[in-house]
Amino acid sequence: MDVDGGRQRQYGVTPVEVMASMSGLDFIRAMFAGELPAPPIMQTIEPFDEVAELGLIVMYSQPGLRHYNPIGSVHGGYAATLLDSAMGLAVQSMLKPGQGYTTLEFKISFIRGMSQDSGVIRTEGRTLNVGRRAATAEARITDRGGRLLAHATTTCLVFDLPVGTASAP
């Protein structure tokens, strides 16, 4: 499936100095536009038609046979990766240059199973609150009919990125 208009997506890790030089929203938009590499974990998810606004992330993907667990349905890790990514990126979209975040915890509820016949699914992440040290967000996965498949909430730690500090030998 050619979901990126013929563009070959690059995967990798952006240097902290580059990330720290940009607002969270600018960083995410550059990543979605292919100007910066997408995180390697997304090679298994292959999201497309990604949108980033302040406090809001939307991305689409299509579950396939490669996402199946031993019992013949899409593994919960597929939904967990999408939800965690959408919530984390929603938090990141609100950060100033020089700030970073990490997930402290998240809770998922699986509502309906997915299969390779589910078609394109939509994942939407939204911030609930972003403070100086902590942020909360929520995310939902829905099918093409708008039915809820899974939802989650998270708490993230917000911190200053360690840029320009020498590490101990």
TrEMBL record:
Keywords from the UniProt entry: Hydrolase
- Would you name any one GO CC term? cytosol
Q: Which residues form the Thioesterase domain?
A: 72-149
Q: Does the keyword Hydrolase apply?
A: yes
The record's section on Gene3D superfamilies has: Hotdog Thioesterase
Quote the InterPro entries the UniProt record gives.
Answer: HotDog_dom_sf (IPR029069), PAAI_dom (IPR003736), Thioestr_dom (IPR006683)
For this protein, the record's SUPFAM superfamilies field holds: Thioesterase/thiol ester dehydrase-isomerase (SSF54637)
User: What does UniProt give as the signal peptide span?
Assistant: none
Which molecular function term from Gene Ontology is one that the record holds? 1,4-dihydroxy-2-naphthoyl-CoA thioesterase activity
- Where does the source fall among the domains of life? Bacteria
Classification via PANTHER family: 1,4-DIHYDROXY-2-NAPHTHOYL-COA THIOESTERASE 1 (PTHR43240), BLR5584 PROTEIN (PTHR43240:SF1)
Protein name, as recorded = PaaI family thioesterase
